[in-house]
Write a structure and sequence with these properties.
single chain; 589 residues; five-stranded antiparallel beta sheet; 14% strand; five-stranded mixed beta sheet
Length: 589
């Protein structure tokens, strides 16, 4: 009996091993065959190639779309294809995913040199690693890589595999794929790259951080020259082409290196807005997108953001052209190339005293005069007993004086008299109260509820535009490669307030800047209409103000909502600094 059990056990072991291997292979085959390369987490889907222009027709960003795997008509540029094949996998078109000759040669070279001098992985193996695995140096991972490579060769043809590789290979500085590398290092579309530039990008593949031209241009050029030499020896380029490429001066896109205008969120916002205007994105291979961004103003705003301290505190700025609704400047954070969170559109924070303009507007609509008197004294509404920020009270005070000193008591009294429901309806007509639904609580009147910088800035922009609210847009027009018009801004607006009311509101805002809580934004000789705002614990610091036809909002605060040691005066001062710089206003006494 014991012998039978032993024999049975010995038979079970190979069955289990065989079953495990079979399941392992089946799982690899199934997961590889059903894989959708467009959903790769490192692959940023780009339906079309594009050029984004500023309002002055200067280039803000260029990006080629990634190669479409199933589009046989979309060809890989010849120099680009040959540079990677020559540098990374000379026998690419001859092997079936695994190149035993290359592996043997690499093994021999590495043993002879005493260190890992040469890799034996094919381009197909690198695709397997990029899309399915990681870079762990383990026997198990290598076995998986070999199996996946063989399956990929069955599923795709060679050009499709090369497209997968070129779309996903990491080339440093946040670039996944040659299209993003072309944009980041040279500010060009793939088709615009020279042979020299292609060779430099190709030379990054083995170790992007070591060979980065932003870090060490000499090493990058040395590696470029190796790629060119390899292409020449393999017969892909002529001797004259090689020599010309070696002599060519490398002109890097230092705009990216210095992080100026390297705001992926700004570019993504422009692209998302573009997508909304195009019915079928697949119909277009190339778009010329004219944005409303003023490139010089954008640079100035990004520089100013770096003045804000301490280090962890964040900053956002938005400028809107009041009589068109066009966004002229958008800074989403102090370091948008690293911290990819859009504080202009996504951050919903208590508006503080910037919201007070709404109950005052409601009062003026009801016929209240700027000279009418109100009681600014400690008051309770049931259990709610708000205080003025300064804890100073003016007693009997005119409407304009109460706004100048940012009373908390008067706007609550106004909202109780007019009705909180009416305040909410008016706020909604300004585009406020949709990010966070407003409720009928007294604290609403003094900005306890939240919204984003985009909406509160546009509300003030309407007041600056005689009560006419425009639909916000960052786009002027979209055209095809042959300049065929695809979409053009129609500048849609609606009238919210009549002229008499807006004139009175602007008197309130001008007084606040000239002699009130917003005086840090005052510029001698200029009419400025604006208001500061502060939430509890100085967690949110706001200033929204208008000068001429431009309305600009600034927010300062911590992303984790902790208290700060700054004041809304800091936001007003930075607003002033931005205005004096972009309008070239002298502030010398």
């Amino acid at each position: 009996m014991q012998k039978i059990k032993t024999k049975s056990f010995l038979l079970i072991i190979p069955i289990l091993i065989f079953s495990g291997i079979t399941f392992f292979i089946y799982d690899l085959i199934f997961s590889t065959l059903r894989f959708d390369p467009s959903k790769n987490k490192n692959s940023r889907e780009t339906k079309y190639s594009y050029v984004i222009l500023s309002s002055e027709n200067e280039i803000l960003s260029k990006l080629s779309r990634k190669f479409k795997i199933d589009d046989s008509e979309q060809k890989i540029p010849l120099f680009l294809k040959n540079s990677f094949i020559s540098s990374e996998d000379k026998r690419f078109y001859k092997h079936n995913g695994i190149d035993l000759k290359s592996i043997s040669r690499a093994l021999f070279q590495n043993i002879r040199s005493g260190y890992v001098k040469e890799g034996g992985s094919t381009i197909t193996q690198q695709v397997a690693r990029l899309l399915f695995l990681n870079s762990d140096l383990s026997f198990q991972r290598k076995i998986k890589e070999i199996f996946i490579s063989l399956i990929l060769e069955l599923k795709y043809d060679k050009n499709q595999i090369l497209k997968l590789y070129l779309n996903n290979i990491y080339l440093g500085s946040g670039a996944y794929g040659v299209n993003e590398a072309s944009q980041i290092y040279f500010g060009k579309l793939i088709e615009e790259l020279t042979l020299s530039e292609i060779a430099l990008i190709t030379g990054l593949a083995p170790a992007p951080s070591i060979y980065s031209p932003f870090q060490n241009i000499e090493i990058a050029i040395k590696n470029r020259n190796k790629v060119l030499e390899s292409m020449y020896l393999d017969g892909h380029i002529s001797l004259s082409n090689k020599n010309k490429a070696i002599k060519e001066k490398i002109n890097l896109n230092y705009q990216t290196a210095n992080n100026f205008l390297n705001d992926k969120l700004l570019i993504n916002f422009i692209l998302n807005e573009t997508d909304k205007k195009i019915e079928n994105k697949d119909d277009y291979k190339f778009l010329i997108i004219k944005s409303s961004i003023n490139k010089d103003w954008q640079k100035s705003a990004q520089k100013i953001s770096r003045y804000v301290g301490p280090k962890e505190i964040e900053f956002a700025l938005l400028s809107i052209e009041s009589n068109t609704g066009l966004i002229k400047t958008m800074v989403t954070g102090k370091n948008p190339s690293v911290n990819e969170y859009n504080r202009v559109t996504s951050s919903v924070r208590p508006l503080g005293s910037t919201f007070k303009i709404i109950p005052y507007a409601a009062a003026l609509i009801e016929g209240t005069k700027l000279s009418d008197k109100f009681e600014d004294l400690p008051t309770c509404w049931k259990s709610y007993c708000p205080k003025n920020f300064s804890e100073e009270y003016q007693g009997s005070v005119s409407l304009i004086e109460s706004f100048k000193n940012s009373s908390n008591i008067v706007p609550i009294s106004l909202s109780k008299k007019i009705g909180l429901k009416n305040i909410i309806n008016l706020a909604n007509s300004f585009g406020l109260g949709y990010k966070q639904e407003f409720e009928e609580f007294p604290s609403l009147a003094i900005g306890s509820y939240g919204d984003n910088l985009l909406n509160i800035t546009n509300a003030y922009s309407a007041i600056n535009n005689n009560g006419k609210l425009f639909r916000i847009s960052i786009l002027e027009k979209i055209e095809s490669l042959d300049n065929e018009s695809i979409w053009e801004n129609k500048f849609i607006s609606k009238k919210i307030l009549d002229l008499k009311v807006t004139k009175k509101l602007n008197k309130l805002l001008e007084k606040s800047v000239k002699a009130g809580t917003s005086k840090a934004a005052f510029i001698k000789g200029k009419k400025i209409y604006g208001k500061t705002g502060t939430s509890d614990g100085n967690k949110d610091l706001w200033f929204v103000g208008s000068l001429d036809n431009l309305t600009t909002g600034i927010w300062i605060g911590y992303d984790d909502n902790k208290e700060s040691q700054l004041s809304s005066g800091n936001a007003a001062y930075l607003w002033k600094k931005f205005m004096t710089e972009i309008f070239k206003i002298s502030t010398k006494k």
